[in-house]
Design goal:
six-stranded parallel β-sheet; alpha/beta; Rossmann fold
Length: about 250
């Protein structure tokens, strides 16, 4: 049995390929929202994994290989999965979206806190980083900055925004990725003089954000994804070749 972690675009593609090639697979996603984008006739669980619950799941379902296709910034599950896989001597394969080349107008930073520091010169800040890491950015309102956030249209995201004191007019709840045209409308309507995004790759709509900011002549502050370790694959064919080696052994 294979455990596939992730509700990303890559995971949706991968689960179809695995099934077509006859591999038995369990899928784990972080939330019920992600379940909506995956076939409903496959074994699936939702919710976070602790190291302990993941280890128990691997034993119960006789998992032979873990494929991690989670979001590039889902660091908790990536860290737990690598550690547990290593302890149990289960192969761990990371399937990641390729990195995107960006123009010189993009300001690359290494962390969320560095992104906050890079926003000092700007007054109207559009945050396209989801809801989980908003707190340090919301604090910029105390310095007179105006912000608008784009988050998923789910109760957990809206609850985080509410708990941080964000007002309804400061929130755009929409499921991405969205087009260049819609990004441009959202940025322009707010009057943004800077946009902040995570390095989510082509599949996460990064190119459309870059194109919209370039068209508007405003900078994009890009939070670089953490570096992965272990066996990392950026092409589906190479991943499947390695899986065949492991599963056939």
């Amino acid at each position: 049995m294979i455990l596939l972690l992730g509700g990303t675009t890559e995971a949706r593609t991968l689960v179809q390929v695995l099934r077509s090639q006859g591999y038995p697979v369990w899928v784990s996603v972080a939330s019920d929202f992600a379940r909506n984008f995956l076939p409903q006739d496959i074994p699936m669980r939702s919710g976070p994994f602790s190291a302990e619950s993941l280890e128990a799941f691997l034993h119960t379902h006789h998992i032979r290989v873990i494929i991690d296709a989670t979001h590039p910034f889902a660091q908790d599950i990536k860290r737990n999965a690598r550690r547990v896989a290593q302890a149990l001597h289960i192969p761990y394969l990371a399937y990641e979206r390729p990195r995107v080349e960006t123009p010189t107008s993009v300001i690359r930073v290494g962390s969320f806190l560095q992104a906050v520091e890079a926003l000092s010169p700007y007054e109207r800040i559009f945050l396209a980083i989801g809801s989980k890491n908003l707190a340090p950015f919301v604090n910029l309102k105390k310095k007179g900055k105006a912000i608008r956030v784009r988050v998923l249209p789910v109760s957990s995201s809206l609850k985080r925004c509410e708990d941080l004191g964000l007002q309804p007019q400061e929130i755009v709840a929409i499921s991405g990725p969205v087009s260049t045209a819609l990004n441009r409308i959202l940025f322009e309507e707010f009057g943004a003089d800077v946009v902040v995004s995570k390095e989510s790759g082509r599949e996460g709509g990064l190119l459309e954000k870059v194109e919209a900011t370039v068209a508007l002549g405003i900078p994009l502050v890009l939070i670089e994804r953490p570096r992965s370790s272990g066996e990392v694959f950026y092409e589906l064919g190479a991943l499947l070749d390695r899986l065949g080696e492991l599963y056939g052994s």
